[in-house]
Write a structure and sequence with these properties.
α17 links the parallel β12 and β13. The chain is α/β, with parallel strands linked by helices and 446 residues long. The protein is elongated, with a radius of gyration of 24 Å. The longest helix has 32 residues. Strands 3-2-1-4-5-6 form a six-stranded parallel beta sheet, sandwiched between helices. A six-stranded parallel beta sheet has the order 11-10-9-12-13-14. It has a two-stranded parallel ribbon with strand order 7-8. The protein has two domains: 201 residues, Rossmann fold (3-Layer(aba) Sandwich), CATH 3.40.50.720; 228 residues, NAD(P)-binding Rossmann-like Domain (Rossmann fold). 45% of the residues are buried. The protein is built from 19 helices and 14 strands.
């Protein structure tokens, strides 16, 4: 079986590579010539555990190749996946110009029946626009070629995308014909042999499923952060509360860890897009409006704790920051809480020295040299007034507290991910502030 994937960003590259891993012949297409040339040399445009190894292996086996030529890339393909970016507009809506440009290009170049599949996260109704764009391009060619459209949303977690694709919880496919269903079932047959469920549905329902799933997870995070803030006011321990409610099978333990807010390329964008879609239909998503509001406020909670301790003027103060990416095992800095915290500290006159295992190069692209970057976590601690733990990378979980105490000007930690134990920190002499445990006044959380 032969397929093409248009777009070699996070979703496109992971999807194409994992399909190739099952023996499918895959061509990945992108307009960025430098990115394609780098991929041919085995240079990855993103950091994702295990991805480089799979790309190199499948390139060597001839199961995956890379090109900028869409005409050649989609030749003889049974399915063509659109996996380009859908950046949010100022009003929160998803920008579909790249998706529709690819759809037109497919219509201009296809030579046989194919299923055009939207893999990008797109609003409900987008597949109809894709179908129209392909059809209009075919009319201009005076071509009567047949095609179908399908929707196949991705459910990949950054940092665990390979496993998520190869061992999916479920595969969701929106189709409009039996012919399209047969091709998509054939494509996913290697996954079905391991018992992974494939759910066929109408296209609009599949498009909605992606947004609903991410919005539900974002809701759990914001809810738990709201509970954590209330725990601080009433003197409860959010870690105990989390265990208590997580033991309920209806709730579960996942996505109920309090922190400094969610970020990344999916949750913020998808929540905004679903809110925007609802408004277009004259409906208000009141819960999601609150989810978004809570999350934005939560990104400032750690800074509020800092100013409560030091005062609003941070001139002469230097802070070590452990973690820049929005979550561990990725270099993604999009909507990362670290950006909000850094901006707030600098505006208050303070300085930041930061370390992240993989995201420093992305941070330099986004904010440049307005902060100091260090080669490891301990270098960041030299003569600082406090440590801010922002991303819960595994290597930060069991540091050498003796070394830390000697390097830091003050043994003070603001933990935005509740990584350390409150009692242990007190025993070894650290002034420790985290989320949802120590009792504070309401103004600290505003």
């Amino acid at each position: 079986m032969k397929i093409a994937v248009v777009g070699t960003g996070y979703v496109g590259l992971v999807s194409g590579t994992c399909f190739a891993e099952t023996g499918i012949e895959v061509t990945c297409i992108d307009i960025d010539n430098q990115k394609i040339e780098n991929l041919k040399k085995g240079v990855m445009p993103i950091y994702e555990p295990g991805l480089e190894e799979l790309v190199l292996r499948n390139t060597e086996k001839g199961r995956i190749n890379f090109t900028t030529n869409i005409s050649e890339g989609i030749k003889d393909c049974e399915a063509i996946f659109i996996a380009v970016g859908t950046p949010p507009g100022e009003d929160g809506s998803a920008d579909l110009k790249y998706v529709l440009a690819v759809a037109r290009a497919i219509g201009e170049n296809m030579q046989n029946y194919t299923v055009v599949v939207t893999k990008s996260t797109v609003p409900v109704g987008t597949s109809e626009k894709v179908k129209k764009a392909v059809a209009e391009a075919l009319v201009k060619r005076d071509s009567s070629l047949e095609f179908d459209v399908a929707s196949n949303p991705e459910f990949l977690k950054e940092g665990a995308a390979i496993d998520d694709f190869l061992k999916p919880d479920r595969i969701v496919v929106g189709i409009e014909s039996k012919k399209a269903e047969d091709i998509m079932r054939k494509l996913y047959k290697p996954f079905l042999m391991n018992g992974h469920p494939i759910l066929f549905m109408d296209i609009r329902s599949s498009e909605m499923t992606k947004y609903a799933a991410n919005s539900m997870l974002a809701t759990k995070i914001s809810f738990m952060n709201d509970v954590a803030n209330l725990c601080e006011l009433v003197g409860a321990d959010v870690n105990m509360v989390r265990k208590g409610i997580g033991s309920d099978a209806r709730i579960g333990h996942r996505f109920i860890y309090p922190g400094v807010g969610y970020g990344g390329s999916c949750f913020p964008k998808d929540v905004k897009a679903l809110i925007r879609t609802a408004k277009e239909y004259g409906y208000e998503m009141q819960v999601l409006d609150a989810v978004e509001s809570v999350n934005e406020k939560q990104k400032s909670v750690l800074f509020n704790k800092i100013t409560h301790h030091f005062g609003n003027d941070l001139s002469g103060k230097t802070f070590a920051m452990w973690g820049l990416s929005f979550k561990p095992k990725t270099d993604d800095m999009r909507e990362a809480p670290s950006l909000v915290i850094i901006d707030s500290i600098l505006k208050a006159g303070g300085k930041v020295k930061a370390y992240d295992p993989v995201a420093i190069h992305e941070a330099k692209k986004m904010i440049g040299d307005i902060i100091t970057y260090t080669k490891d976590e301990y270098e960041a601690l030299i003569d600082v007034d406090a440590l801010l733990l922002v991303t819960e990378w595994p290597e930060f979980r069991s540091p050498n507290y003796t070394v830390m105490g000697k390097l830091m000007k003050t043994k003070l930690i603001f933990d935005g991910r509740n990584v350390y134990d409150v009692a242990e920190m007190k025993e070894i002499g650290f002034d420790y502030h985290c989320i949802g445990i120590n009792t504070v006044s309401a103004e600290v959380l505003q």
